[in-house]
Amino acid sequence: MKTCMPLALLTATLTIGGQAQAQNAAAEVPAYQDPLLKLDIDERENRYQFERSSLRALKVQDPLEGINRRIYRFNARFDRYVYLPAVRTYVWATPKPVRTGVSNVFDNLRDIPNLGNSLLQGKFHLSAQTTARLLFNSIFGLAGIFDVAESMGLPQQDEDFGQTLGVWGVPPGPYVVIPFLGPSSLRDGTGRAVDWVFEDYVNFMENRDFMNNYQATWGLWAIDLRYGIPFRYGALDSPFEYDQVRYLHTKLREFEISR
Prior knowledge:
mainly alpha
């Protein structure tokens, strides 16, 4: 009996102490308050929010959906069995500084259509910035191998003729998936072709002549293009990936035109 008394007292002490600590902890934690309690929410409006968002996501002009889906699947298989293995081989065979230099050279050439489209959109501040980038990178960056302009606070400003047409009020037209290139629209696909012709016409630093004389550089250009795009087919892990990509691409283009 004597041996049980201390144990009983110890148990009672711990129980009382635990209750006291629990009460103190409860006093320290503020009571939960609904953050939306003070907001005036229209329940009727909120009830159909999800359905409306889903309908907006599907509301994309896609009259060629059957063909587009087939091209999308073709692009996904090409990407999986041809494009990405080539990119992985490129990454394995070349050190990162070389890959960075290659990307910088092609980025420097892309500043030609960036400059032309900035001017056509009346973005003169960005035009001046892109002109400075071209001069600094082409001269001090050794034909663009080093992006010295970026370190000087002159980041690249992507502008294309599809954006220019959008700024001029041209609607996007039907959604299309271009073989090997991916999602686009009639307007943006046309703009991409115009940019290509413009680059060919300007032939900055005779880059097109050089690439036509050394055809392998076109392959390097294509690999670098995929190397710089993080998107992976199937990464969304969704049976509705085509619809999601279509919606996200459409919204991204709207944002790029409105900024």
